[in-house]
Amino acid sequence: MTTAVYPHLPPDTLKKEEDDSTARELSWLLESLQETLVSLKSGLEECYALLAPIEPGSTLVMSSPRSESVKGHVTRVGTRIVKGTLHLRLKTLPHTHISLTPALPALESLRDLLNQALDCVDITRWTGDRHSAAFISGQLRLLHSILVSSLSLLSGSPLSSSSSPSPSSPPWTSTSTPHSPSDPSYPPNLSLHLTPSAGSLILTVRVLEPVTAEPSLGLVTKLAFAIGAQRRLEHDEMEGVFVVAGEKVRVREKVVVESSADPMMLVLGAKLGALERTVEAGRVGLRVVCGEEVDGD
């Protein structure tokens, strides 16, 4: 079987016919992408609605497995916790009962990114040259990068950038739930950090101590460490020095707890993933028609 054109055309005529065919295919693709943009806007609006502050929200169980370290629940409405109760039984603090209503900076950033994505779709549809492959390609690249960043925030692993905090100053040092002077039950050396992660919330509880504090180990404690009857509270940040509220501190104790699944966040992740794949498919199709390399950006 042959793919040769019959009757045979002169090379210059064949080239012209190929160019005309490619131009028609590109014109059709650009028009179909306008319909795709309408669908994308609808999907983005649905995602934005999932972050709206609409009652009753999602009430999530927040308890540590196989221990009594953390027991409680939180209620998320939109981008903040509107009600939360935690019972803490940590080794370096007295038993503590606290209430918390923090904002969730990652979800606030995600909401801003969804706004940017909606603006990008409107600009692509109503400004510039909708028949320009270069313009549409550039806009789809921007939209895709916004969606990738959104998915990264929702999974709890924001993409690194030059503006990211240094390893000695991770995000939790500035976004932890602050101590409230009006709440005497909230220990001043306690840090609570909430982040989204794959359809749930991750709570990291840290007990901090100043770097200048000298460890006071009694004779019994030293002997217990020496014979292995008692272990130090080992964790991945035990050797680090961090700056919190202008003070250098160490993390004396650290407990990480994952909440029960948040149905709304699971739906949001699925919708964002579908939108990202749709945009990527449009980008690949445009590159193929334009004769560009498909791999990479």
UniProtKB/TrEMBL annotation:
A cellular component annotation (GO) from this entry: RAVE complex
Segments for region (Disordered): 158-189
InterPro entries listed in its UniProt record: RAVE2/Rogdi (IPR028241)
Coiled-coil spans in chain: none
Residue spans of biased composition, Low complexity class: 158-183
Listed name of the protein: Regulator of V-ATPase in vacuolar membrane protein 2
